[in-house]
Specification:
By secondary structure, this protein is mainly α. It contains 20 helices and no strands.
């Protein structure tokens, strides 16, 4: 914990302390820029550097030439999007904070916890220091959004100020929600959890109702998808959401200002004023959260209830170790060293999976419902392919962030993993086994339900089950190979992480598009070369074997990346 005395967290340090913290932020920013430039020139990162430069060139060219040629968006509509969208994102974050069992602090690194949290610095100064770190990320996001929205506004400078202030207030509001939920008692958290979930469910039902009302029954599924985006915009523009978006109203109006008036300067002043107001709210909420947690700790010590909680945790830990012991006994039966070592690593991972099994199950309920949602449309011939497409999208985009129980979680334990007498292939298989099993269970359950409804035939079931399973293996192997080649800390931010996220998304989109193109080409080849009686068998066999060969190659690549991982160079400083 980063505090000293909770009652002192509501007061401010002298200006000298804030100047020193600001100087520390500047020095750290300079160090990160120098480190980034060094990495860009590194031969080990030549591919990443080339892709980053190409991405920026294409992005700016797309913004200048392509986006400038499109029809400008209605300023009133854009204003409602900029304000209401912030509320919807904050609602999502509130649901996430309520349902997580992790109590998060101000999201500082271990070095900051040691040198700042243990020093004579008040909590208000630490909060302001963390906000200073947010500013850099907000500047980069503002630049990306400004390139996209430049053709929709009259004053580019006001767009920059409005978007920047909105993003900063959003990030500070996210911290306020995070610290506020951390200070709640168990009963209060449960009440808030179900209340917020009910509100989020009502918003989702509102979106669904607007989609059904705006799309004729029996329309193609892609029209439902387009209506879904429009429905989200309509919900963001509703009166209720706009009342909740009062902190962002001035910034949104400032961004879409057409004519400079006296009201424009008032909106500018309010937009900038919301930043210190939100910082003051963060400091107050953080002080209340610290005091509430401190008071509950004293109550637990007095009534000795911590002993019962300790017994519950011990029982849960014992169950986790019983599960891991079963996996170890099962592994000892194998004669293959590769499989046996991998299963021992699976036993290590099973402790985390057993502890967070409720969160994992809940994380995949929503993707399952989204993938099965095309079954509610009237186009029977299209339902199966949209379900399969939804499974592929969830496998590549949602499953890796939700199941970070592989190398991406173990960056701080790399020295321990490297010291184990385990072959690289066994290490990769052991790290990826449980995330893959969970993803495959999600895929198979969804496919079985869709197949029972649509009756696509066994050729379609075998084809897409085999290819989607290979896609899951490829996705997790590629994610971990990329992480081992260019590792980063769990809460890392900045321009490097932004470029990484954009390139990863574009890479996954390219993989999906290339796979569909190759599948169509293979279908044409089979139709022209193979006899009609063996056409389907050849098509399914070739498609499944090819995807599995690519998946196996990705696993081998991940093993090679683990073999070349250098503790002295590849682990980035915090």
């Amino acid at each position: 914990m980063l505090s000293s005395v909770p009652n002192q967290s509501s007061t401010w340090d002298s200006p000298r302390v804030h100047r020193e913290l600001a100087a520390l932020t500047i020095r750290r920013g300079q160090f990160r820029i120098i480190r980034l430039l060094q990495r860009l020139r590194s031969p080990r990162r030549l591919i990443a550097t080339t892709l980053a430069l190409v991405f920026f060139a294409i992005y700016i060219a797309n913004g200048v030439f392509v986006l400038s040629a499109r029809t400008p968006t209605d300023p009133a509509r854009l204003q409602l999007w900029l304000s209401g969208g912030m509320v919807i994102y904050l609602l999502y974050h509130l649901v996430r904070c309520c349902w997580t069992s992790k109590v998060a602090d101000l999201e500082m690194s271990r070095a900051e916890e040691l040198w700042l949290g243990g020093g004579p610095v008040r909590r208000s100064s630490l909060a302001l220091y963390h906000v200073n770190n947010i500013v850099v990320a907000a500047v980069m996001k503002t630049f990306l959004l400004a390139v996209v929205l430049a053709c929709d506004v009259s004053h580019f400078s006001l767009l920059l100020i409005g978007v920047f202030s909105s993003l900063v207030v959003l990030e500070i509001s996210r911290l306020v929600v995070q610290r506020g939920t951390a200070g709640l008692s168990k009963n209060s958290r449960n009440r808030l959890r179900w209340g917020v979930t009910a509100i989020a469910g009502a918003v989702a039902l509102q979106v669904i109702a607007r989609v059904l009302a705006g799309t004729p029954i029996g329309s193609p599924t892609w029209k439902y998808l387009i209506s879904g985006f429009s429905a989200i915009g309509d919900v963001a523009a509703s009166d209720t959401i706009q009342w909740l978006a009062l902190p962002w109203i001035s910034s949104a109006r400032l961004a879409v200002t057409a004519d400079m008036q006296l009201m424009t300067f008032a909106q500018l002043a309010v937009s900038l004023l919301m930043i210190p107001v939100s910082i003051a709210a963060l400091v107050r909420v953080d002080a209340w959260s610290q005091a509430a947690r401190h008071r509950r700790e004293q109550e637990r010590l007095q009534d000795r209830s911590f002993l019962a909680n300790s017994d519950i945790r011990n029982q849960s830990t014992d169950q986790s170790f019983v599960l891991s012991d079963r996996v170890i006994r099962f592994a000892n039966r194998f004669g293959s060293t590769v499989v046996r070592d991998a299963l021992h690593l699976v036993a290590r991972q099973s402790v985390s999976v057993n502890r967070y099994r409720g969160t994992i199950i809940f994380s995949f309920i929503v993707p399952t419902l989204l993938c099965l949602s095309p079954l509610a449309t009237g186009q029977i011939t299209e339902q199966w392919f949209y379900v399969v497409g939804g499974i592929a999208m969830c496998t590549m985009l949602l499953a890796p962030p939700a199941l970070r129980i592989d190398f991406r979680r173990d960056l701080r334990r790399m020295q321990l993993l490297r010291s184990l007498p385990v072959r690289p292939l066994s290490m990769v298989l052991g790290q990826l086994a449980l995330p893959l099993l969970i993803t495959l269970a999600f895929q198979w359950i969804t496919i079985v339900i869709a197949a029972l409804v649509t009756q696509p035939g066994w050729f379609q079931c075998v084809l897409w089950t085999g290819m989607l399973s290979a896609l899951a293996v490829f996705t997790f192997a590629a994610e971990n190979a990329l992480f081992l080649a260019y590792p980063h800390h769990e809460r890392a931010e900045g321009i490097g992480m932004m470029i990484r996220a954009k390139l990863t998304f574009l890479g996954k989109a390219a993989v999906i598009a290339g796979s569909l193109g190759a599948l169509v080409a293979w279908a044409v080849i089979c139709k022209n070369i193979v006899s009609p009686s063996f056409n389907q068998i050849a098509f399914v066999t070739g498609a499944v074997l090819t995807t599995w060969m690519i998946a196996i190659a990705s696993v081998a690549t991940a093993a090679w990346c683990w073999r070349r991982f250098d503790l002295s160079y590849d682990i980035p400083p915090e």
